[in-house]
Specification:
This protein is α+β, with helices and mostly antiparallel strands. A hairpin with a 5-residue loop joins strand 8 and strand 9. The protein starts with a helix and ends in a 16-residue tail after the last helix. The C terminus is likely disordered. The protein folds into three domains: about 200 residues, Rossmann fold (3-Layer(aba) Sandwich); about 100 residues, Rossmann fold (3-Layer(aba) Sandwich), CATH 3.40.50.300; about 130 residues, Alpha-Beta Plaits (2-Layer Sandwich), CATH 3.30.70. The chain is globular, with a radius of gyration of 24 Å. The chain has an eight-stranded antiparallel beta sheet. Helix 2 packs across helix 3. The structure holds guanosine-5',3'-tetraphosphate. Guanosine-5',3'-tetraphosphate binds next to helix 2 and helix 3.
Length: about 525
């Protein structure tokens, strides 16, 4: 019974956005409202604190001023436990983000009111949509000049095919933000600014008649727009939300804390608590069976002084208790959980127990890889986390052959963590592996880590390959004989045919149907 109750209290979600839309600021404000940041710390300070506490572990990040790592933040709010999965914030397409989404039960999409949906992140939102992940939308930065609210809603609908269902509506155009109408009650919630957004923004509930008196023109415009919304029936609908078809939409300003509480309350009230996860065969695994979970992320060297490796596990069923011995599904070997941590940014605490929806950091889980299942009791295996088909390919060579051993070790580690995919030519062995990535930023991270972490300065030669397909032994010789095609193997044994030209690939598929050339990823994620 405990398991069911504890699971019902959990809300496990990720915030996704285009860089600069305000994800970091919103995360920080959630922590403020959750009491996990000391009030009065000052937003800028708190934000720097968070940045250095969570993800400044990599010089590359500092150089570029981006956040590449992702972390988990857990805090209590009302009678719930919030697990906020932080997704990497760089501009590039990153497989990491998709893995994090596999561990989330919902997502909050943050948009900049002046920019709307930006092309680079469109794919990320489409993925949420394709996977039916419940999506809440926060239109941020309403405190400064931006676009028209109705126009932004149209854009969401047109671009990602999810219907925005405004729960709140702004009073005052962007740049003159007074508050929001809570469409559920019809009340006007007036916000008051506090210096530097360092404490919660005071809210005053104002009756419509008084609001009309006091807010004049701004109120008039809001009521006109609200009437329009009534006309199109853009209302909240639980079933559509849970199916990922309708996104409850909120307006606010993370910087000034306007609308933050309403959004966080909505995460608690609307976002689903953990439910039975499906196993590999699609059968739901009951929440109250013995412990089980899967690893969605592996990260090495978060803590320089320790040189360790953390596997992040999302608990799917049962109670996790530190010290329990579980089974590592892929190897069928016992796995001791003595070194289990809850990871809040970079600071860690030993975790004694965890429940469905929680994330546990397993320290020095050497043989554990992304996608692996860990369980107690009866066997269970969760589906592998879908990956995107790589679109960038580059050959890696160690610059100093005396460092080859380090190079090989580093490449193996990056492959295991999924920083890049590593493809090998069976005849060439490990000398010059082909690195494959969804976004070129993955290469930068790989090169940086090979040099600084493994002591293996590496050079990369980019290639003209742009697309990969799964193939087999029978088709390999024919494909290898063609120009602009290569056949390589992944560590898991999968053979990949890589092509310079997508056009050529399409022609081959048409003209030589006997060749095995399958798309790499499940249809929903095909790149
Ligand atoms: P990200 O994590 O999505 O990349 O965005 P982040 O929170 O870092 O915010 C990007 C910039 O937008 C920051 O300004 C931040 O202060 C600002 N911002 C976030 N939310 C709001 C908002 O509601 N209103 C306004 N006006 N600005 C907002 P910066 O100048 O890059 O950084 P800083 O000097 O403020 O730290």
């Amino acid at each position: 019974m405990d398991v069911i109750e504890e699971a019902a209290r959990r809300r496990t979600f990720a915030i996704i956005s285009h860089p600069d839309a305000g994800k970091t600021t919103l995360t920080e404000k959630f922590l403020l409202y959750g009491g996990a940041l000391t009030a009065g710390a000052g937003s800028v300070k708190a934000r720097e604190g968070r940045r250095s506490a969570t993800s400044d572990w990599m010089e590359l990040e500092q150089q570029r001023g981006i956040s590449i790592t992702s972390t988990v933040l857990q805090f209590p709010y009302r009678d719930c436990v919030v697990n906020l999965l932080d997704t990497p914030g760089h501009r590039d397409f990153s497989e990491d983000t998709y893995r994090v989404l596999a561990a989330a039960d919902a997502a909050v999409m943050v948009l900049d009111a002046a920019k709307g949906i930006e092309p680079q992140t469109l794919k990320l939102f489409e993925v949420c949509r394709a996977r039916g992940l419940p999506l809440l939308t926060f239109i941020n930065k309403w405190d400064r000049p931006g676009r028209d609210a109705l126009e932004l809603l149209d854009e969401i609908e047109a671009q990602i095919g999810v219907t925005p269902g405004p729960v709140t509506w702004p009073v005052g155009i962007a740049g003159d933000f007074r508050g929001v109408v809570d469409r559920r009650s019809g009340d006007f919630v007036r916000f008051t600014r506090v210096a530097r957004g360092a404490t919660e923004a005071p809210e005053e509930i104002v009756e419509p008649a008084r609001a009309a008196d006091e807010e004049g023109q701004a109120w008039g415009q809001a009521t006109e727009e609200l009437a329009l919304l009534e006309g199109v029936g853009a209302d909240y609908d639980e079933e559509l939300f849970l199916g990922g078809e309708l996104s409850p939409t909120f307006f606010g300003s993370a910087l000034t804390n306007f609308g933050v509480r309403l959004l966080l309350d909505a995460v608690i009230d609307l976002a689903p608590s953990p439910s039975a996860h499906e196993d590999e065969s699609g059968k739901p695994v009951p929440l109250d069976r013995s412990f089980s979970g899967f690893v969605f992320k592996v990260q090495a060297n978060m803590d320089r002084s320790h040189r360790d490796r953390i596997a992040y596990l999302r608990v799917c069923s049962g109670r996790f208790e530190r010290g329990m011995v579980v089974t590592h599904e892929p190897t069928d070997k016992p796995f001791a959980t003595k070194y289990a941590h809850s990871v809040f940014g970079q600071s860690r605490e030993t975790v004694e127990e965890a429940w469905p929806g929680d994330v546990v950091g397993l320290v020095n889980a050497t043989d554990v890889r992304v996608g692996d299942t860990l369980y107690e009791g009866e066997h269970v295996r969760y589906p592998t986390i879908p990956s995107f088909a790589p679109e960038h390919f580059a050959v890696a060579r160690v610059r100093d052959t005396g460092r080859f051993k380090q190079f090989r070790r580093g490449i193996a580690q990056l492959d295991e963590e999924g920083v890049v995919q590593v493809l090998r030519d069976p005849d060439l062995g490990d000398q010059a592996p082909m690195l494959a990535a969804v976004g070129p930023m993955q290469f930068d991270v790989a090169i940086h880590r090979l040099e600084h972490e493994f002591g293996a300065p590496t050079e990369l030669s980019t290639t003209g390959y742009t697309v990969a397909r799964r193939t087999d032994q029978a088709s390999a010789p024919t494909l290898r004989a063609m120009r602009g095609v290569d056949v390589l193997s992944r560590a898991d044994g999968t053979m990949l045919a890589i092509f310079e030209s997508r056009y050529w690939l399409d022609r081959l598929v048409d003209e030589q149907p006997d060749l095995t050339l399958e798309p790499l990823v499940a249809g929903e994620l095909a790149g």
